[in-house]
Amino acid sequence: MHTFVSMLRGINVSGQKVIKMSRLKALYESVGFADVTTYIQSGNVIFGSSSNDPSSIGKMIVAAIEKSFGFSITVIIRRSSELGRIIRACPFVALSQIDESKLYVTFLNSRPTPTLVKALGLLAAKTRDQYKLVGSEIYLHCPQGYGKTAFSNAFFEKQLKVAATTRNWRTVNTLFAMSSTRDE
Questions:
Q1: Which residue among 50, 81, 112 closes a domain?
Q2: pTM to 2 decimals?
Q3: Which domain holds residue 69?
């Protein structure tokens, strides 16, 4: 059994695309996932699968949600081990006096093209907020908070032409702690 974490983008935000976590857990179980646990109301699910293919798992979840709830969403999947690597690679944690409550990770569903990444760098020079793209994750440090940053999901999706979802640093660490205790 392989352990995965799925992050659903845009559910239960401002009363839009509402899915109760008990129903989401039941949906995951109904498509054959094991040991399903949800974390907070924003669509974080830890689960086991006999499949080791995140892409096919993601497509299965998207189809099941569309069939059961009537809307389409983005689902981003990471292995528990990937979350550990993501946490260790954060370039901002080592900075002195960093406020970890101002750290975020934007998870991309694929790696953006180098041309779009370069163009993004020119736009980012106009803000105090910092970001660092590493693979398919963007680490964000937003001193004024995520609510005031220009680096929203919509910004990254538009600029990089990929789907994205963002989690705060505490949530990323909690998801890793919850998932890493399971066998892979």
A1: 81
A2: 0.90
A3: 2-81
